[in-house]
Write a structure and sequence with these properties.
Shape: globular
CATH class of the largest domain: Alpha Beta
Bound molecules: shikimate-3-phosphate
Subunit structure: Monomer.
Distance between the termini: 18 Å
Function: Catalyzes the transfer of the enolpyruvyl moiety of phosphoenolpyruvate (PEP) to the 5-hydroxyl of shikimate-3-phosphate (S3P) to produce enolpyruvyl shikimate-3-phosphate and inorganic phosphate.
Structural class: alpha+beta
Protein name: 3-phosphoshikimate 1-carboxyvinyltransferase
Number of strands: 28
Pathway: Metabolic intermediate biosynthesis; chorismate biosynthesis; chorismate from D-erythrose 4-phosphate and phosphoenolpyruvate: step 6/7
Radius of gyration: 21 Å
CATH superfamily of the largest domain: Enolpyruvate transferase domain
Binding site for phosphoenolpyruvate: 64, 137, 165, 213, 395, 439
CATH architecture of the largest domain: Alpha-beta prism
Length: 482
């Protein structure tokens, strides 16, 4: 259960926390500290049904990964960072509030336009209250890196989904850098208390899995280190932190490492210079439109300004292999990232084998790819999905259960998900459990737009974490939700 409400003073987000009650946080749109509010609400069920084709133009919201990083680098530089196109979803609003708590002045100046006056590397304030990240693993993990590299102590907490997610993968390198964990829940989970290192030890760290969150946490901690911090990743993961650090003037080098890996070296204690940031459209949100327009017969949709960073476009590559009809137009650079307009028309898909090596470039897109696979002819095998088990929900199980509810029989073999496609004729008809996971919610709503019978999801409120305008924007294209 969860709910987001727009009020005169800001956005109030309610999430299940204590005694079955919903504890809400009121995020000010100005520079006031967030406040806790209490309210009881019930889950928002939502049903998607098949209607006419989807048609028109849509601009996806700002990229979530870049939005978090823009606020965080704003906090870590001295002077004013102006951000345009910031994703105003709950996850990012939590990060904005945490930046305020650590000493930044963060103000919304217009729709998607924010201004951050930071304090600079080495000059953060010790927070007076628990840092609450809501549903956001990225916000929490990146901020653990920031705190881990500063001589301050902070408590970290989040909602029921975030409390289940592993944090040891972040704490391990931070401990090597000199941080201390003062309190933690079982298995290195939150709520936890971290005491950062005032003089973080420069380390060379090999990430055990391809994870931009681990890489970013180590680099952010390394910013306040007197030496050179090196991160080696076995396979390249999204590189927004490296790009933005360079853009803000840090000394950072990126080399290839092994077949698909990368080695990133960062000189500590840079003076980060604020620079304006234009946040490009989020390919992980555009993914829902891309698949919906492909599976709803007769659709013809233009997705404007989607980020084309190759470490984020694995879904597009896969859909093209499956036979999707996507024209990539007007490739251009915006805010340091390549973007393009995509024209997507409905198409018949065929099943494919998706290699494990592609996972880092589409890690958040497997739920919606599984939906596309349900509408394909033949089998789709998605390999190497172990990391899906530690997302906002156990996405491997949640996707399989959702497909079953909609009349598809998937199989999980080891870390692979196998879906036998039903061509254009997917039964639908079930109630899908979303487990506080926005991407499960949106994926199965998209399935319901093209299946024979409507599909209901148990709670649509978490969609506000990443794509608050999903419903009205999709309805403008012709989607039928009720
Ligand atoms: C993200 C990295 C990915 C992704 C998450 C956002 C980021 O997680 O799933 O939604 O912004 O760094 P991992 O790095 O743990 O794979």
């Amino acid at each position: 259960m969860g709910l987001a409400l727009m009020t005169k003073r800001g956005v109030a987000c309610y999430q299940p926390k204590r005694d079955g009650k919903l504890i809400g946080t009121l995020f000010s749109l100005y520079n006031d500290p967030a406040q806790e509010v209490l309210m009881e609400v019930s889950a928002q069920r939502l049903t998607a049904r098949r209607g006419g084709p989807l048609r028109g133009r849509i601009k996806p919201p700002g990229d979530k990964s870049i939005s978090h990083r823009a606020l965080i680098l704003g906090l870590l530089s001295i002077g004013e960072t102006a951000i345009e196109g910031l994703l105003e979803g709950d996850d990012v609003l939590h990060t904005a509030d945490v930046c305020r708590e650590l000493g930044a002045d963060v103000v919304r100046t217009g729709e998607g336009c924010w201004r951050v006056r930071g304090c600079g590397v080495g000059s953060l304030l010790a927070p007076r209250k628990t840092l609450d990240f809501g549903n956001s693993g990225t916000g929490m993990r990146l901020m653990m890196g920031v705190v881990g590299g500063h001589g301050i102590t902070a408590s970290f907490d989040g909602d029921a989904s975030l409390r289940k997610r592993p944090m040891r993968r972040i704490l391990d390198p931070l401990l090597l850098m000199g941080a201390e964990v003062l309190k933690q829940a079982e298995g290195g989970r939150c709520p936890l208390e971290l005491k950062g290192a005032s003089e973080p030890i420069p380390i060379e760290y090999r990430t055990p899995v391809a994870s931009a969150q681990i890489k970013s946490a180590v680099l952010l901690a390394g910013l306040n280190s007197p030496g050179r911090t090196v991160v080696i990743e076995p396979e390249a993961s999204r590189d927004h932190t490296e790009r933005m650090l360079k853009y803000f003037g840090a000394g950072i080098e990126v080399e290839s490492f092994g077949e698909n890996g990368r080695k990133i070296s960062l000189e500590g204690r840079p003076e980060l210079r604020p620079a304006p940031i234009a946040v490009p459209g989020d390919p992980s949100s555009a993914a829902f439109v891309l698949v919906a327009a492909t599976i709803v017969p007769g659709s013809d949709v233009i997705i404007e300004s989607m980020m084309m960073n190759p470490l984020r476009t694995g879904l597009l590559t896969t859909l093209l292999e499956m036979g999707a009809d996507v024209e990539i137009n007007d490739r251009r650079e915006e805010g340091g990232e390549e973007v393009a307009d995509l024209r997507v028309r409905a198409a018949e898909l065929r099943g494919v084998d998706v290699p494990a090596g592609r996972a880092p470039s589409m890690i958040d897109e497997y739920p919606i790819l599984a939906v596309a696979a349900a509408f394909a002819h033949g089998q789709t095998r998605m390999r190497g999905l172990n990391e899906l088990r530690v997302k906002e929900s156990d996405r491997l199980e949640a996707v399989a259960a959702g497909l079953r509810a909609a009349g598809i029989e998937p199989r999980i073999i080891g870390d692979d998900l196998i879906v036998e496609g039903h061509g254009g004729d997917v039964p639908g008809g079930g109630l899908v459990a979303t487990h506080l996971d926005h991407r499960i919610a949106m994926s199965f709503l998209c399935l319901g737009l093209a299946s024979r019978r409507p599909v209901e999801i148990d709670d649509a409120s978490m969609i506000a974490t990443s794509f608050p305008t999903f419903r009205p924007q999709m309805e403008r294209l012709g989607a039928q939700f009720a």
